[in-house]
Amino acid sequence: MSDAPSGRMGSIDALRGLTVAAMLLVNNPGDWSHVYAPLLHADWHGFTPTDLIFPLFLFIAGVSMAFSLAPRATDPAMRPALVRGVLQRALRILIAGALLHLMAWWLFELPAYRLWGVLQRIALCVAAVGVLAVYTQARTQWAVIVGLLAAYAAILLSAASLEPWVNPASRLDTALFAPFLYTYSALTGLGHDPEGLLSSLGAIATTVLGLRAGAWLRAGETARLAVLTAACLALGGLATMWLPLNKQLWTPSFMVWAGGLSMAALLLAHAVIDRGGLPALGRRFGMNAIAAYLGSSVMALVLSATGAWAWAFRTLEHALPQAPKLASVACAVGFVALWWLVMWALDRRRIYLKI
């Protein structure tokens, strides 16, 4: 744990924090059978507000590297130590994700341990983009974005189908990692993981885009950032003529579209917080982002395994018999509020837990 670093841009911490709070909200409904549609991911192809949350988090991770790593990487002597620190942090996040899934496997007696997951994907993106932030310049980083999207698009466009189970990402994950996936059927031999290996190409590209957006923001080039925002939204929409928006596959069209929305959110936060002087709502979550996600995930697993979560939903459902979806979202809001209090207490004591 450490004191908060000085000179941070409030909009970045606020946007990261709001994203984490949104993660807690959509991941913890009172009952999965009663959820408002905008708080669910698209079943397969398509896009909902919930589908933006994880890309926005990875985008902000890239933005943060433009402020925390890139300025120090101008000194060649600092680069080995910076990369070592990035890789060590990525390893800690990876281990945390692995232990979280071990806990879920044990508590719920799941048929197989899941290798991939949200924290594992964050670790992969942090490691890959951290190295790029330290050792490469803007031109190379743009080339990486284009190269990743072009290669992934070529793979998807050459496939016979992008439907569940039989798309290239699912087939590769099944071939390499079955049965240790989010879903796997021993009967059919088909599996799928929304945070699997091949779809991570799009997630890495999202994080590199955040790195470049952060560099422009740090340089005060908000006009260029606004132009890129519009271009990404237009290109992402146009690309759906060939590749659908699909968060589980993290298709190139989804990456560009979500990247445009993420840049729009960054510009808005910068305008109202850094320039407009409005309070950095969400900052407390942002200062302890991974700790908040990990701690709340552990708590949610324990509450679900012990039946306490189901009891809380039934109690609210009894109070709102005609509105089960409202009772469900009330559980989620209460959970976010509880963790906001935890983050408030940590921030008040200037305790910032670093994984």
Walk me through the structure.
With 355 residues, the chain is an all-alpha fold. The chain folds into 2 domains: 1-40 and 281-355, no CATH class; 51-275, no CATH class. Helix content is 65%, strand content 2%. The protein contains 13 helices and 2 strands. The protein has helices spanning 10-27, 53-68, 79-107, 118-135, 138-157, 168-177, 200-218, 222-239, 252-275, 283-287, 289-306, 308-319, 324-348, and strands at 183-185, 190-192. The chain has a two-stranded antiparallel ribbon with strand order 1-2. α1 (10-27) packs across α9, α2 (53-68) packs across α9 (252-275) and α3 (79-107) runs parallel beside α11. It starts with 9 loop residues before the first helix and ends in a 7-residue tail after the last helix. Mean pLDDT is 95; it is low at 1-7.
Structural class label: mainly alpha
Termini gap = 9 Å
Strand-residue proportion: under 5%
Largest sheet: 2 strands, antiparallel
The H/E string reads HHHHHHEEHHHHHHH
- Counted up, domains total 2
Taking all Cα atoms into account, the compactness measure Rg is: 20 Å
